[in-house]
């Protein structure tokens, strides 16, 4: 999907940045939490996929609230009511009268206040990973006690010291350095350290329990059971105190919505706002998958500097596109500093992988590659299934400039010009049993 253009609405004298994309029959406003940046969001393959999936059934309205991202930054200490006015301004600018609102974390607080204040403008309210109050109180034991609050403040202040602060909010990317780098940079682009601490302090003072009984909009409360940033008890409180609210406890530990099982969350949203279950294709195909990644990308970035590194990555993108097209393959997605590619057969996949290894060497890059053939589930523009996991794990087992394959690939290319070196059997994390591994000989 082409990246949408950023536009501006006026909330009083404050400029609110927003984007509109998708062609679905309903309008859905996505109210993010904490620190956001609507343009840099599209640099994350995970976030871009999440937004694209929602845009298949809705016209999505995407915005940065006042104080962060592309919106005006120096706005003092806005109240929840003032922050909710950003939604009003954006809806007026877009020209829509009534929307479904999806609020995550702090965005859930802003969305709830807006739904209670302007019920005529909200068709559906969806809350995810949200809490009605942060601090402990005798009548709200779920809140953070003083010592816990102090730990939270210290945790978020680590941002100013260059510490990565997102992993507890997205444990599913613990083995994905590229995704961690993006998330860390996303927060830094969103606001300065002082601004983020100010925003955190404001959030710690949030308490919107008193308006819950005024919400009459059909409401869905979602929460991942193991959310490390926000206890599931907060979701139960919201569902118990919003009249007629539905509660969905989802598996997983990620607080940040676009990490973890995207499909389940998007399916719940779609079913709630349209009354239809997700109709993603369940077609299955036998494909050969190639996972390709740049070795030591962080070190290369440090050596080259931002400008030269981005130039090299742009050259690599063009090279991959041309090579894959020449061998009849498809680029499924970017994976941080790498790619997931698919081919109809293993021979063309191996040929392409070898050419790409040489191409990357010519760009001064080392690569690691995993190749596996198996049945894949087609999910829109993405792939799922055990075969995808096996190919990814093969790549992670590969040494620099090594192409590892499974026994299946070796057997299916019998009689070709490819030579294989047997490496023995190994366990691949996340899969059952042991797998015979083979390296392509140069």
Outline the secondary-structure elements:
Blueprint lengths: L6 E5 L2 E8 L4 E6 L13 H11 L2 E6 L16 H15 L4 E6 L1 H12 L4 E7 L17 H12 L19 H14 L2 H12 L14 E6 L7 H10 L4 E5 L11 H13 L9 E11 L2 H8 L1 H21 L3 E5 L3 E6 L2 H17 L4 E13 L2 E3 L1 H12 L4 E5 H6 L7 E8 L6 E7 L2
Parallel strand pairs: 3-4, 3-5, 5-6, 6-7, 7-8, 12-14
Antiparallel strand pairs: 1-2, 2-4, 9-11, 9-12, 10-11, 12-13, 14-16, 15-16
Overview of this structure, please?
- By secondary structure, the protein is an alpha/beta fold.
- 37% of the residues lie in helices and 24% in strands.
- It has two domains: 7-274, Rossmann fold, CATH 3.40.50.1820; 284-440, Nucleotide cyclase, GGDEF domain (Alpha-Beta Plaits, 2-Layer Sandwich), CATH 3.30.70.
- The strands form two sheets. The chain has an eight-stranded mixed beta sheet with strand order 1-2-4-3-5-6-7-8, sandwiched between helices. Strands 9, 10, 11, 12, 13, 14, 15 and 16 form an eight-stranded mixed beta sheet that branches.
- Helix 2 (80-94) crosses helix 3, helix 4 (146-157) packs antiparallel against helix 6 and helix 9 crosses helix 10 (306-326).
- The radius of gyration is 24 Å and the shape is elongated.
- The two termini are 38 Å apart.
- The mean pLDDT is 89.
